[in-house]
Design brief:
Elements lengths: L5 E5 L3 H11 L4 E7 L12 E8 L2 E7 L11 E6 L2 H12 L4 E2 L4 E3 L5 E6 H9 L1 H12 L6 H9 L1
Parallel strand pairs: 1-4, 5-8
Antiparallel strand pairs: 2-3, 3-4, 6-7, 7-8
Helix pairs in contact: 3-4, 4-5
Length: 157
Amino acid sequence: MAKNTVFLWYDKDAEAAARFYAETFPDSAVGAVHHAPGDYPSGKEGDVLTVEFTVAGVPCIGLNGGPAFRHSEAFSFQIATDDQHETDRYWNAIVGNGGQESACGWCKDRWGICWQITPRVLTEAMAAGGDEAKRAFDAMMGMKKIDVAAIEAARRG
C-alpha cells in the first residue's frame, strides 16, 4: 500500500466507480475489493466495504460509507490531456455516463467526484504569463469543455 492514498467516500457504489475509472483512464486499475466482516451503519456483513484502485497512477481507496457525506468541488482529479481528441474522450465519458458539465474544464461524474479535464496547451499558456496567459484565461472563462483550438488562437492573439 502506498504511503499516501486518496480516500474517497461513496454512498454505495465505490466498486462501480472504480471500475468506470479503470475503463476510462490509462494507468488505472481495480485492486482488492474488501467485504464487510459484520453489519455497519450503511451496510450488512458481506457487502463491499472498501475498494482499492488507481486513477491515472494515483492510488485510491473507495469506502461505501453511506449517504452521510457528499463530494464537493473542494476536491477534484485533474487530468492533463494532449489534444482535443483526448479532451473529448474523457469529458464525454464522464458527462455521458450520468455526469454533468461545469465551467472552465470542470465536470462531475455520476458519483459526485469532480474532474478537471485540462489540455496541456491551457496549462502552458498560464505558465507563459503576461498577455498570453490573460488571453487564454479570458477564452477559458466562457467554456465548459475546453476548446483546444480556441485556446491556441487566444495564445497567438
